[in-house]
Known about the structure:
The complex is a heterodimer.
Chain A: H1 3-12, H2 14-29, H3 50-61, E1 66-73, H4 81-95, E2 112-118, E3 124-131, H5 140-151, E4 167-174, H6 180-192, E5 199-203, H7 205-239, H8 242-265, H9 277-299, H10 306-333, H11 341-370, H12 374-388, H13 392-406, H14 408-427, H15 444-455, E6 460-468, H16 477-489, H17 495-505, H18 513-525, H19 531-547, H20 554-569, E7 575-577, H21 579-590, H22 604-614, E8 633-640, H23 645-661, E9 668-673, H24 675-709, H25 712-736, H26 742-773, H27 776-783, H28 786-802, H29 811-850
Antiparallel strand pairs in A: 1-4, 1-5, 2-3, 6-8, 6-9, 7-8
Chain B: H1 2-5, H2 14-17, H3 28-40, E1 45-55, E2 61-72, E3 79-87, E4 95-100, E5 107-112, E6 117-121, H4 137-141, E7 148-153, E8 161-168, E9 178-184, E10 190-196, E11 202-214, E12 217-227, E13 232-243, H5 255-258, H6 262-265
Amino acid sequence: MSYSKILQYxxxxxxxxYLALLLLVIATLxxxxxxxxxxxxxxxxxxxxxARVFHNQTKSKFTMHDMVVIGAVSNESVFTQAxxxxxxxxxxxxxxxxxxxxxxLLALNVVDNIxxxxxxxxxxLGIRFEYLMKQSPHSEExxxxxxxxxxxxxxxxxxxxxxxxxxxxxxxxxxxxxxxYSIAEQVREFTNNLDSTLQFYITGLPVAxxxxxxxxxVQMGVAAPLAGVAIFLLLWYFFRNFPLIxxxxxxxxxxxxxxxxxxxxxxxxxxxxxxxIAIFLMPIAVVDSVHILxxxxxxxxxxxxVKATLKKVMSHLYTPMLYTSVTSAVGFYSxxxxxxxxxxxxxxxxxxxxxxxxxLTIIFIPAYVSRLSEQTxxxxxxAVSRLERxxxxxxxxxxxxxxxxxxxxxILMSFIAVFVFSIEGINRIEINDNPTNxxxxxxxxxxxDKTLNAHFAGxxxxxxxxxxSLNKExxxxxxxxxxxxxxxxxxxxxxxxxxxxxxASKGKxxxxxxLLVQLDDLSFDADExxxxxxxxxxxxxxxxxxxxxxxMQPDMLNWIAKLQSELINTGLVGKVNSLADIVRTVNRExxxxxxxxxxxxxxxxxxxxxxxxxxxxxxxxxxxxFVTKDYxxxxxWLQMTSGDNQHTTQVVQWVENYVAANPAPIDINVxxxxxxxxxxxxxxxxxxxxxxxxxxxxxxxxxxxVLLFRSVKYGVLAMLPLTFTITMIYGLIGWxxxxxxxxxxxxxxxxxxxxxxxxxxxxxxxxxxxxxLGSLLIALQAMFNEPSRAxxxxxxxxxxxxxxxxxxxxxxxVTVGAFLxxxxxxxxxxxxxxxxACLTLLNGNSLRRxx
Amino acid sequence: xNSFISKLALVYCLSQxxxxxxxxxxxxxxxxxxxxxxxxxxxNDGRAQARMVIVDGKGQKQxxxxxxxxxxxxxxxxxxxxxxFSRPTDVKGTVFRVNKKINSDDxxxxxxxxxxxxxRISAGDKRxxxxxSNFYYEDVSGRNPQEDNLTLLxxxxxNKHYLLKxxxxxxxxxxxxxYQAKIDxxxxxxxxxxxxxxxxxxxxxMKVLKMKNVQGHPTVVHSRIHQFSDNSYTDLQFRGVAYDVxxxxxxxxxxxxRTVPKKWLK
Lengths: 851, 266
């Protein structure tokens, strides 16, 4: 069905159109309650992304949890009776909260101390495992003793208590990330009511994320309506006619509701990116309507047939509107080429939203206008003519036009210079992101982050995971098979167990204690005549099991200890906690308690026996955060003072180089997990993904331009303003030293999609005028009257539409708002200066050639 | 009452002989004494091979195997104990030596063969993990009944068991707020003990899974302690249980730490 038929239908049956739109809006609006917020940066990677899969495996393998960090800071030492007692109160309060994994809480009153007990005659009474501070100290001496004890425990020093003794931390593992905001709020309320000389701070990535989600929700509720109001006021300024400007507002609102409703209804979560969909669509959706209304008021004269005028206007605007909408949509759709799910969703829904806005505009607006009263239409005409009168905008544009044509060469040269300068800026771009920096510097999350990281070794975690390479060679496989065969035949050993044993012996999987338990049970139940064979198998499995315990080998632990101290020496890492610390600490206390015994025992059995003692504490399971139960994998917990990607990248590279130069004594695989690491993985994916997306949408848009103008020359010209704008914006980001983060990355696609509109309108109108007036130069002069004003007006509408983002307390929104407003301004300006200058030069050349 | 939990369980014939008592006439303290006797003082001495399977919340297993030797100085009084580890293989030869004292702190020593180290373990908290399992040291050696205030709960529905509630006299020394022990009226063996926190939620639970009569003593040969916080548990199984084996005092000395008295282990 051609558009003219659709238009005819809309003009004939406006009420049907209204009803259909209303039903669609109600249907999609009813899906809103299903809304699910997602602020987890982990979701920047798809669920199947190897890095994410490994991260989650690591979390489960080493029972690592998401943690909220509470810091208590004082101006003086925290080791006083009063302050430690306050900290105890907070810790006990935290333990009473739902959603806290109590057995893994890290706080002074639940962790263990291991020490040498001496009597008054300084005789050694032996090794002692006890709670570090189960009760608040009863005296100042006891408080000092706690300090002394902590300093001797490398696992706690500078993790639970800061190196300067002025801060204490409580690490609160939580069952689910989305509980962190409510837990943090409850703790805040508790500490606010606590009469204490301590200052309390709360940080940790889960809190930042959850808080971000909360504020994002508020943000959406505030910024999107504000954008609506801003656009409404602006439209009123242009048209001074409420009934009329309701039309674009209805289109905008309907577009937003239908798009968001579908997104929610289709089960997508609202992520930081998709939360901006409303605010993006609103101004874009209004733009086409502005074109129709402007054009209509220009052609409509009192007494004209409204429907006939509308048909004329629509036939005239249909193609450029279609093209601008499709190109904008392509710009956003190209985001689907990035490997980042939230960005894909964002691109897909804005792209579709733009097309929806186009469809709504070309159907609803004519239907609506056709039903307006005579007086309303009359007033519209007056308002537009008022706008046409000499305003500051029109004067400026005329000056600009003259300048563009007269100084064409100068302009072109300046643009080339700025372009070169921008390229250099792009080379200086620093790719960096840190979810904590999504909050403004004065936000309590940022303040807490800064304060706690100034005192402690760092609240940002990265986990270095060392895995034993699966031994490919066969281990006594023949011997085992021989032993097993008769037992399987006699059904003494079941097939499953036999298969597990065979696989392990062939180096296809690791031996497990589980196997030993089963064999042991077997020997208990089996007939006497099989006992010798079973015990041989047990001995064999036991031998292999012991042998495969890589992280009990002294060489390995010494290698880890060295890696750890070298890592600290780089200054990149605040602290590293590892199995080597546990072993060395227990070893020290088993012997003299002095520094010279802070070493790894000489044999694997020595390590095993040391660890058996460690497990005779109140928290034996703490060991399993650092090594798996079969001792084939180990985890190093790196604490860093910043969550910046660049920082993490440096650490990762350093480790890579170090391990290459100093290979581990046993063949191991080195991998990373932890949120800080995941951030760099998706950032890398984003940078390359964005480049793909930008290049492909650039190519598609270029082809569309060639098709639209049926001219390669005009196709190239159409691409010039946006090429320049994008280069300049990113050049600026590079020169300003602003980190290239996710919102910035997404801007490229937006710029492409939006700034091409100006070029399309400019070139299309110029060509029409050229044909009408018979000369390009005269046409260009005419361009700086009404057509340029329309372009400028649209640029202003979009730019103003984004400004409510500037009021947001969340940095990504502010960034996007500020950059989009400037992108609109720059690309409109570039279009209005660069295109006439180029056209003038090209025209001059062709003129000269003709002469 | 972890004491009950203990698997050393060597039951004394006293329980059988005490049939004549009218059940109702027993006080909570009397019941706990009988129970303690049945659980920890069966025979004059005892020997058992123990296997612990520690199962974490994800179902991963670890084992500890050891032989326990016990000799009573006096019923319901002091005892001597030795624990010889045989598995995991890398801790083989590790020995615990305990002189359990009723009226003072226990004396504990440790021998680590790979470090060739004998170390005294300072008398301290007895509610620390026993070699990484869900059993506490006190579950193995027996909790002193004097440490709790006991009440006999009348709300007991089945008449085969006593239900006792124990509240620690010094609550700061333990992790629980109170416990409830279900004690068999006939054998006086505790068959189930549940530990609760301040809010009344379960912290841990000891369950007897299998009993066996050894030389006339009802003996727990399989029990389990379940930890509710992370859904982990430890099974403790006994084999080769024997009472009145005639263990000489010389076995319970420092000498045995380095030189294992193999003769008495099996």
